[in-house]
Amino acid sequence: MADTFRKRAPLILVVDDHVANTRLMRELLHDHGYEVSMANNAAEAEREMHDNPPDLVLLDVIMPGKTGYELCREWKNDSATRLIPVVMITGLTDREDKIRGIEAGADDFLNKPIFPEELFARVASLLKIKDFTDELENAEAVLCTLGLSVESRDPYTEGHCERLASYATELGRHLDLDTESMIALRRGGYLHDLGKIAIPDEILKKGSDLTQEEWRLMRQHPLIGENICRPLRSLRLVLPIIRHHHEHWDGSGYPDHLEGEQIPLLARILTVVDIYDALRTSRPYKPALSHEQACETLIMEANRGLWDVRLVERFISLPHLATMAA
């Protein structure tokens, strides 16, 4: 029975234009219990990476067509592959060549000729880090699923998280934000209301007619969500979104009554798209507004001091926003 649940052997992709080198590496790695896929040029490597993503890549630097530097840079710039460790194998010894590899995002280097003991030590170390990374990603996935479970408690908010993630990343792209901020905005779309998991249904579904004590409980949800996500360092850029997406430009929001640019930019972005989606969604106590009506309301409320006017203007100017919301 134990064999049924044994963890699969790690898969290592070996990329080298010399067939003899890839075969030798395959034999060495197989003898140590690893699965191995091989590629003899950049096109084969890209196909293997897409069709059968490995746990680690051993990548030769010098190849015809795309170099190892170019392949590594492309993989590290792609959110689907950037966490896969890449070890660059090179016969070059110049310091500048290593700097090029570091700039391309390489996780480690091996110099030719390769000594098996060094190869196995590097591979084992990087695979251990990859295991930790996978565990963190699994934890994030669980939290995002919990965020969706909060949404599912209210039939009127179906699709809310996905829409916010889409709106927020589109606005972030329009603002030329960096990749990490874009990832945080997408995660924030799913996790911003995670703290509502601790709010009773009778309060969550009641709408705006809450008692003073019910409002006190409801206003705890940003703090609860932040505390749930705080142990994951990978969510550090998402924490301000979760905590501050109910702050108002004029300081009348919660939980910290921040004003203006005291409110983190990513939180302000999530707030604007959250309000737009709320305006576009029907509730028991209000009808859904049209795209034009929602934009007019956003501008009016921003001019009253609730939202960041500049962000509202940038958001409602997004091409295809009306069709995104349809």
Low-confidence stretches: 1-6
Q: Report the biggest beta sheet as strand number plus sense, adding barrel if it closes.
A: 5 strands, parallel
Number of helices: 15
CATH topology of the largest domain: Hypothetical protein af1432
Strand content: 5-15%
User: From the helix content, strand content and strand pairing, which structural class follows?
Assistant: alpha/beta
Which architecture of the largest domain per CATH?
Answer: Orthogonal Bundle
CATH-level-4 superfamily name of the largest domain? Hypothetical protein af1432
Radius of gyration, CA atoms, in whole angstroms: 25 Å
Average predicted confidence as pLDDT: 87
Helical percentage: 40-55%
Oligomer: single chain
According to DSSP, the number of beta strands is 5
The shape is: elongated
Write down the secondary-structure element order.
EHEHEHEHEHHHHHHHHHHH
Tally of separate domains: 2
Which strand order do you get reading across the main beta sheet? 2-1-3-4-5
Straight-line distance between termini: 51 Å
CATH class category label of the largest domain: Mainly Alpha
Structure, described:
This protein has 326 residues and is of the alpha/beta class. The chain folds into 2 domains: 132 residues, Rossmann fold, CATH 3.40.50.2300; 173 residues, Hypothetical protein af1432 (Orthogonal Bundle). Helices cover 54% and strands 7% of the residues. The protein has a 5-stranded parallel beta sheet with strand order 2-1-3-4-5, sandwiched between helices. Helix 3 links the parallel strand 3 and strand 4. The chain is elongated, with a radius of gyration of 25 Å. It starts with 10 loop residues before the first strand and ends with a helix.
